[in-house]
Design a protein that fits this description.
Layout (H helix, E strand, L loop, with lengths): L4 E7 L7 H4 L3 E2 L3 E8 L4 E6 L3 E10 L2 E7 L3 E4 L11 H9 L8 H6 L3 H15 L28 E4 L6 E4 L1
Parallel strand pairs: 1-3, 1-7
Antiparallel strand pairs: 2-3, 4-5, 5-6, 8-9
């Protein structure tokens, strides 16, 4: 009989070797932890409502890139889902669709991708609890850069840096 095991997918860069933290560890005494680690850029997935989630990841074997597929039982996200160049929210949606559990819920990871969305949720809490009990720093949302003009009489600090390091300004 094959030993019981659970597959943990850790999404992180390769600067941290997560295998050393899980080597020899077991869940509830008799479940072996099989660890898979990859960056988001090396992952693809398929989530089916009947058969579950299959993750395919590119791994380097002796200088040759090969694709390995598996069904994760749990995922740990240690890499940003989105930055200025790439957006991996579709993978996040696939993990949600496949109901793969995570330390930080996939729901919370998705909701925290847009700072205005997060701040609007904090404003709802503030309205319920009151400004004295839940203070927030005032912010202004602009849908694009063209709308960013100072219409408030309060003093503000602006800092603009061009790509040329000799060109910069600071005004108040």
């Amino acid at each position: 009989m094959k030993e019981k095991q659970k597959t943990l997918l850790i999404i992180d860069d390769h600067h941290t070797d997560w295998s050393k933290y899980f080597r020899g560890k077991r869940l509830q005494g008799d479940w072996e932890i099989r660890l898979e680690q990859a960056e988001l850029k090396d992952i693809n997935l398929t989530a089916n409502s009947e058969s579950g989630t299959i993750v395919s990841m590119i791994v380097d074997r002796n200088g040759t890139k090969v694709v390995r597929s598996f069904s994760p039982d749990f995922v740990l996200f240690r890499q940003n889902i989105r930055d200025s160049n790439v957006d991996f929210r579709k993978l996040l949606l696939g993990f949600k669709y496949g109901s793969i559990p995570s330390i930080n819920t996939v729901h919370s990871l998705y909701n925290f991708q847009d700072k205005p969305w997060v701040f609007s949720q904090l404003l709802h809490i503030q309205k319920r609890l009151g400004k004295e009990n839940f203070p927030l720093i005032e912010q202004t949302f602009y849908p694009n850069h063209q709308e960013m003009h100072t219409s408030s009489p309060t003093q503000s600090a602006e800092q603009i840096f061009a790509t040329d390091p000799r060109v910069h300004s600071l005004s108040t």
